[in-house]
C-alpha cells in the first residue's frame, strides 16, 4: 500500500505511531470532502516530535481486486498491511523501535486490539471513535438517527430501515453461511466478511492485552456513540489503571468541533481536527513512552 511517513525536523530516536482509517475505501489522509483529519493528526504530532506513518487502505488502492475476492474479510482489510507498516516504522533509524504505537479511527479503532494481539511489540493503542456495538447494528442505528433529523421525511425512510434491520438479523442468524447471497447482507458485503467480524469481540480482545490505551470519543458522534460504543470500552476496561478515556463535547465522528445534532451536511465545508485531541494524544504518547522506558 502507498503511504506517507511524517517526521519532525528535529533529530533523535522518536516515538512512532501508525494510523488506521475506518471502514470503506479510505485513503491515508481519511479524506472527507475537503478535510483530511488523519493528515492533520500526522502533521500535528510530527510538530511535537512524533513520527507518524499513514497509508491508503487496500480497499482504496486496489478496489477491483477486493471486489473480486468474495472471501475478503476484515483481516484482509487491515492485518497484512498494518503489520508491515509497524515493521517498517520500527526499522526507521529515527524511530525508537520499542515505542511504536497504533492508532485507529472508527473501524480501525475497533480492529486495533486484534492487530496488537497479532503483533505483541505494539507499545500501546489509541482508539478514536472505535465501535464496540456489532457493525451491522451500528449501521441500523445510524440510518434511524439520520431519519430522525427530519420528521417530515422520516416515514419515507422506514423501508430502508426495515431492509437494513433484516440484513442485520441475517448476519446474526445461525443460518448465515459463506453461500448466503450478498444482497441479503449489509452493504452487500459477502458473508465471509460478516462471519469473521461477528466472531470478534473488540472489548474482550482489548481486555486481554497488557498494554496502555487511550480511548477518545466525540460526544456529538452518531456513528460511534457515547451510549452504545464508548460504554462498551468503559464496561470492559474500567478497572485498568493504564487505560485513559477522553471525551470531546463539541466533536463529531471525525473529531471536528461543531454545534447541534451532527449530520452529514456539516462535513461539506473544510475543517480541521480538534486541536485538543492532537494535544491529548501527544501528551499520552509521551507519557506512555516514558513509562515503558
Q: Please name the fourth-level CATH homologous superfamily.
A: Alpha/Beta hydrolase fold, catalytic domain
Shape: globular
- Uncertain spans, ≥5 residues at pLDDT below 50? none
DSSP strand (E) fraction?
5-15%
Q: What is the number of helices?
A: 11
Q: Can you tell me the CATH architecture? A: 3-Layer(aba) Sandwich
How many strands in all? 7
- Spatial gap, N to C terminus: 32 Å
CATH class: Alpha Beta
- Considering DSSP H and I runs of 4 or more, what fraction of the residues is helical? 40-55%
Mean pLDDT, rounded to whole units? 95
Q: Could you tell me the radius of gyration in angstroms?
A: 19 Å
CATH topology: Rossmann fold
Write the layout of secondary structure elements.
Layout: E1 3-6, E2 14-20, H1 37-46, E3 51-55, H2 58-61, H3 63-68, H4 74-91, E4 95-105, H5 107-118, E5 125-128, H6 135-148, H7 154-172, H8 191-198, H9 202-207, E6 213-218, H10 226-237, E7 243-248, H11 275-292
Parallel strand pairs: 2-3, 2-4, 4-5, 5-6, 6-7
Antiparallel strand pairs: 1-3
Helix pairs in contact: 4-5, 6-7
What are the key terms here?
293 residues, Rossmann fold, alpha/beta, 7-stranded mixed β-sheet, 7 strands, single chain, globular
